[in-house]
């Protein structure tokens, strides 16, 4: 049974691998999931860019990806991962599947956050001739900001769980360490330590996300 002191270097590496995977996936969620969520909202019936076709197509694609269990998505995307990053194991490879899972997850949260914006304010902006981009940039984003940040926090916490799952196929990170030492070697100390690390990380992200969301909330 390995001691925690002996495994400390590997624990540090695993911790930062987890941060790398989750960080990449969060960035992709922001740059792709956020716009998709806005598209889902503004193309809805009665909104200023109403378009049932775009709404339906984007919605179906998002629902399709969300309906696939992450462990299956992980295996399904192996050929794409190999093509994109040149390998199928390690944190960079795992971040591909995490990113694909994060995009629809965050997009739906963005859509829900945008629905909380007062439609009266949007209608008033349309009445004075505001362009769709101005409405999105100056009204929807600022008004939905607390919800967007809270949604990003939820997404980050979900991705931490997914990253641990990625360890089952050599994705690296804390989950991989738990599988290699805690499960295969029946080392309860390592398993317990990795669980504690994940709990601390989740609690920190939740606290930070709640603090930022409250700070930017003007209501």
From TrEMBL:
Domain of life: Bacteria
InterPro entries, per database record: AA_ABC_Transporter_Permease, MetI-like, MetI-like_sf
Gene Ontology CC entries for this record: plasma membrane
Keywords assigned by UniProt, alphabetized: Cell membrane, Membrane, Transmembrane, Transmembrane helix, Transport
Keyword Cell membrane among record annotations: yes
Residue stretches making up the ABC transmembrane type-1 domain: 15-209
GO process terms (BP): D-methionine transmembrane transport
SUPFAM superfamilies in UniProt: MetI-like (SSF161098)
Positions of transmembrane segments: 20-42, 54-77, 89-109, 147-169, 190-209
Compartments where located: Cell membrane
Membrane topology: Multi-pass membrane protein
Stored CDD domains: TM_PBP2 (cd06261)
UniProt similarity note: Belongs to the binding-protein-dependent transport system permease family. CysTW subfamily.
Annotated protein name in UniProt: D-methionine transport system permease protein
The species this protein was found in: Gracilibacillus kekensis
Source species taxonomy: Bacteria, Bacillati, Bacillota, Bacilli, Bacillales
């Amino acid at each position: 049974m390995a001691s925690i002191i002996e495994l400390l270097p590997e624990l540090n590496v695993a911790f930062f691998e987890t941060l790398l995977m989750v960080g990449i996936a969060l960035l992709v969620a922001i740059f792709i999931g956020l716009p998709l969520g806005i598209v889902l909202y503004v193309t809805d019936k009665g909104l200023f860019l109403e378009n049932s076709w775009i709404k339906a197509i984007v919605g179906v694609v998002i629902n399709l990806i969300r309906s696939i269990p992450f462990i299956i998505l992980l295996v399904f995307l192996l050929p794409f991962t190999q093509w994109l990053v040149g390998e199928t194991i390690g944190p960079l490879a795992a971040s591909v599947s995490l990113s694909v899972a994060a995009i629809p997850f965050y997009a739906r949260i963005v859509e829900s956050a945008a629905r909380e914006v007062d439609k009266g304010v949007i209608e008033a902006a349309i009445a004075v001739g505001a362009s769709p981009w101005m409405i999105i940039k100056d009204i929807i984003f600022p008004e939905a900001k607390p919800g967007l940040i809270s949604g990003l926090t939820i997404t980050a916490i979900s991705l931490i769980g997914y990253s641990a799952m990625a360890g089952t196929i050599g994705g690296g990170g804390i989950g991989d360490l738990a599988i290699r030492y805690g499960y295969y070697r029946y080392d309860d100390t390592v398993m317990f330590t990795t669980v504690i690390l994940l709990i601390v990380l989740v609690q920190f992200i939740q606290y930070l996300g709640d603090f930022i969301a409250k700070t930017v909330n003007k209501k």
